[in-house]
Amino acid sequence: MNLRSQILWATFTSMFFGCAAPTSQPVGLSRQLQSVPPGQSDGIEFVDLKQLHVIAQLPPPRYSPEARAAGIQGTVIVELLVDETGKVASAKAVSGPVELWSMAEQTAKNFTFMPYSPVGTPRKVRSRLTCVYNLR
Description:
Layout: H1 3-17, E1 19-20, E2 45-46, E3 54-57, H2 65-70, E4 74-82, E5 88-95, H3 101-109, E6 111-113, E7 125-133
Parallel strand pairs: 2-7
Antiparallel strand pairs: 1-7, 3-6, 4-5, 4-7
């Protein structure tokens, strides 16, 4: 599969499965979500997810039977650390229904991005992913 096909597939699956780069700031979230979280002054730049180009995304994990049975749905925000190769080095849910956090973190780990290199040298970056879970 060529790069264009991979990007189109990632776009389709992210729209279908509900986890994607937000087109605008989600309603109800404060602007502080757009900055590096307090206590993380490790020098790693925070970038908007729209600046990272998705090249691969595996299907997300299935909705957990417990969350489905309990009728739990909602939006989960996941903080990402993307390494120099474009792989998600860490994913940590920071808001949303706790019962959905592990699903959202696993979904985030399934992404692969083009290496972020605005000045020619790839580097680590932090970002946030918004995952919306709806019972249909």
